[in-house]
Amino acid sequence: MAFLTDEERLHWLPPASGGREIVLASHNQNRFEMQDGRAFLLKLFGLPAANRPQAGFAFPAKGYQLIALALLSPSRRLTRQKAASLLWENTGENEAFANLRQLLVRIRRAWPPERPLLESEGPLLIAGPGAEDSDLAAFLKLQQSQAVADLMQAIEIFDGELLAGGSDANGEFQLWLLSERSKLKDRFFSTVATALLEITRYGRAKEADLRTIAERALATEPEREQTYRTLIEAYGRNGMFDEARRLYDNLTDLLKREFSAQPSAETAAVARRIFAAAHSHSEPVVSPERSSNSQPRVAFLPPELPRVGASSELIPALVREVANELSRYRTFRVIAPHSSFQIVKPGGAADLRQVDAQYAVSAMLIPGTSTLSCRLARADSGEIIWAGEFPADDQKLALAFRLLSHQTAASMAHAIERDRLDDNRRQHDGAAYLRYLEGQISLQNCDLPRLRRARSAFRDAAATDPDFSATRAKIAQTFHLEWLMLGGNDPDLLLKARAEAAAAVSLDPGAGAGHWMDGVVALYQRDFDGAAESFAIAETLTPHAPDFLVQYADALSLMGEADAGWERFERAIELNPLAPDHYWWAGASILINRREFRGAIEMCGQMKSDESAIRLLAACHALSGNISEAEAYGKRIIENYPGSTAHSLADIPPFKLQADRELFLEGLRMAGIK
Hints:
CATH class of the largest domain: Mainly Alpha
Oligomer: single chain
Protein name: Pentatricopeptide repeat domain-containing protein (PPR motif)
Pfam families: BTAD
Radius of gyration: 35 Å
Structural class: alpha+beta
């Protein structure tokens, strides 16, 4: 983009022939664009510059100062007398007014008339429409926004001090300029803090956004310790502990090198808290023994067949087909028959240790018959856990080949899963299971003390039996519910919840609970693709578990599929009619997205404690026309979540559809939440 500046201050760049734009190498073009993609016509941050003034005219240096004065004055208005006295302090009043009139003429000549930079109203000068096309005006507007995209753009725009490089400013104006620079810098760092808090609110900010903010903030004031502290907290909330450590080390080196000092006690305390949290988010390392135990391996042995006949080719093909069918199941892994067939030596027994198999499938053609006998046995004890016989004459086998392979695979899979479940029951410590049940009982009512008691019980169970994956999934659920109940302002709780869910999946990939909670947390982190994938796996593994169904129902509703969510919710209630509180909470959430507000209120009436649902109740009563009841719930919200706004509360549910969010926001506002 072509910037044309006062010839007294900068080298004048004439317009390029043919309208081609000239880009100044010292500037980043993207930083001088408005939201609609147009270039800023006036640049006041850093070295002042004007973009495309009238041909043949240079923009006057004091014009930048006058525009900045107007934009930063109350209501963007200032008197001619104030402008004249600030810009020409050392001249007489008449001469100062004459200089001001001349400056205004030069500005009008240099600027397109359709969007004037300044307008006059009697003794007042007012920032005109053209001044809105400046980077300063854009920053002042965007930094007040609640939208993250606007805050990010405001941070990008602030690329230097206001009116940097000026040498003709007098004492009075210089004092004003220093004061305004300080105020603008305060606004910038406040915007940085707000943006960091917002983008890390769910613990999954984009690394590129964090890096952009860090670069701009540290470039603005490289030695500002509070900036480092804010960034360390943000990286910690986002689970990026290595980056947080790097920033703290950089700050420590900087302070030691430049000031022979150490980070302040406040910064050191923040760092200790963040680094301590890093340990609680680490996933467990699953031992090879546990890995093979949680997801067993199945080996197919070569069938024992006569030396001649078509069956000697067809039956091995059937065995391979059954193995392929079994490989679709998620609860165990199948060794390729090409390898497992080779572990049996002529005249010898199979050495299952070669392929680390926990189950072996063998088949033989019963002598003197056309019947194929198949067995599934445990590798460690030889115990047969499944057996079947099938007609194996060549004609029948060829006709029923596909159906037989499906049936055999399904039957074997059921036997393996049943055996693993029995083995799981035998392995889990009785005391651990008792604490697990105690946690489940505490989890039935959604209030904070019971929720934390439930987590304590689940943690005791996990400590007693580290291989009990369900406890880790339940710990994840308690962190997620606490995050909701505390207003969704602590991303560390979501990070802990997802780490616990990942731990549950690592311990037992074949159990649905870990995938289910991973989907729930991913949803609230706005990772909609990740949530859909985890829920799909969980539904495959546990299609009839009511706890899972109610969470999936809530997720579908939040992702814009309220009717599909309601269908699953009804299935969950059918399986668990005397449901705990969080079921009714989820049902009410679905009904508000179906615009059934009275039904949602009745649903909350099923809860033993409505503490977790007061936001829903406030919105539903308001949208139903029960304003007095809505306002009563609104007062409870203000008491429970001081400082929260309707916008911040509406941002807690991860609505995929903006219309659903706007409806909830309207209800909260009608209930008296500002």
